[in-house]
Design brief:
Length: 140
């Protein structure tokens, strides 16, 4: 099963994809959030190219694990994307994925300026990989 993950922000949406076996997550790209939410041509092309079986949206929960206003906004936007694309949708806790992405990019020697545009797709791949690992563990 191929899973497409979305790190939906107010400006940008980071996108990552799993391999067909559902074992490895890879960052794909970053698109303007409006294009993804509206299923614009650029996002439709991505769906056609990768042909995912499932959408996985990162949910920005608070550190205590509760759902705030931002999480409600993401739920509504992700549901709109799922409804338009016809794909099933699941949510995953994305807490601290952006901070982890920044840490990884810093270790690669990137400056804050160079990181712009990369953080979101790396974050999407981080929470997708965690989700894939949990799915595999459930099957054991």
């Amino acid at each position: 099963m191929r899973v497409l993950s979305l790190d939906i922000g107010q400006v940008r949406c980071g996108i990552a994809i799993s391999d067909p076996t559902g074992r490895v997550a890879s960052p794909v790209c970053v698109l303007p959030s409006g294009e993804v939410i509206g299923c614009a041509r650029s996002f439709k092309r991505l769906l056609d190219d990768w042909q995912p079986d499932l959408l996985l949206a990162g949910l920005p929960l608070t550190l205590s694990g509760s759902s705030g206003g931002q999480a409600q906004r993401i739920r509504a936007q992700a549901q709109q994307i799922a409804d338009t694309s016809g794909l099933p949708l699941e949510f995953v806790d994305e807490r601290l994925s952006s901070q982890e992405a920044k840490r990884m990019l810093r270790e690669e020697g990137l400056t804050e300026r160079d990181m712009r545009g990369k953080i979101d797709m790396i974050a999407a791949s981080i929470f997708l990989q965690a989700w894939l690992d949990r799915q595999r563990a459930k099957k054991r």
